Amino acid sequence: MDHFINPTTEVSRLINEKAGLLYEKLTRLQVDQLGMPEACLIYFKGSHFTRLFFSIQTSAHLLNRALQHSGKKPEELCVMDYGAGVGTLYSLAKMIGCKVVYNDHLEDWKKSAQLIAEAIGVQVDHYVVGDIDTTLDYLDQHQIKVDVILSRNVVEHIYSLKSFFELIDKRAPDAIIISSTTANFNNPASRWKHARWHKKWEPAYLALRKKFIQDQFPQLSEGVWSHLAVATRGMSYTDIKSSVEAFIQNKTVPDPSIHRTNTCDPEYGVWAEHIIPFSEYRTFIPQRYQVLFAAGFWDTHYRSVLKRLLGKAMNALQGIVPVFATHLAPFIYIEAIPKKEK
Predict the structure, then answer these.
(1) pLDDT tens for residues 232-242?
(2) What is residue 77's DSSP assignment?
(3) pTM of the prediction?
(4) Integer Cα distance of 145 and 6 in angstroms
(5) Which residues pair with 292 in a beta bridge?
(6) Angstrom distance (rounded) from CA 275 to CA 262
(7) Is the pLDDT of residue 292 over 70?
(8) Which residue, 9, 58, 103, 133, shows the most beta carbons closer than 10 Å to its own?
């Protein structure tokens, strides 16, 4: 079997060994017999299970980056897997010896993750259901100091990144924050793909916004309902209500172009694959953090031979021209490292 991560150090060798063990355990797992909620089972089988090597490989690299930045040994590290769903990160983190806090905002995902972990003999230390506020409350109540907050394909859904980073800064100031996301603005192909997705999803969200405005402000006209529904793209119901109230008072209308093509589910306040420039991330992260961006890598373990060859070629090209690596990468890392006080 190929390496999940280049085993050049004691830590990377440990991660690679445990990643291989996790792969073997999950390959043998009779996932249909665990009693997982149907939606979670379908997602796990269609996403992580079909690309299991790559799922574990990305988890291995995230953990290695976390350990490199922290300077700690795995057994000294408390890791939070934020928005973990039914991924492989939380299990691998526990298998290499970290203390692990699992988080997801829905009970069904937490239940599914726990069923999977226990079926393969992994005992996660804490399971928390809720948003970042709820999770930080839990940490305070249980006197847990988290060293690293990791996430994979989560940051592109968080409604207010500014609030997210500021809350962590205030309540877990020593925590390193590392996120990976396929919403890579530097990659032109990624921007094109996301724009197509946004165009596909926006009509449904537009209809939700219009109905909400109609229900909340029946005194307005059909034309105004339609106009404001378009103008409030990228807003949750709470912000839509405030914007319509401002329109009624002083005729100001939001400018949705600031979101480029991005759109969000207004009911839950969840971005639909939010893709933004690196410079915008920097405005959301407090200045006391060192903010780093790095290129991810292509999957070289597809079933398709052509896809495998393409992945290897793209990875090689990123190595040849590292200055353009993020422009070629299928995903990126966003790292916020607390600056050491002088």
Answers:
(1) 999 999 999 99
(2) -
(3) 0.96
(4) 30
(5) 335
(6) 7
(7) yes
(8) 103
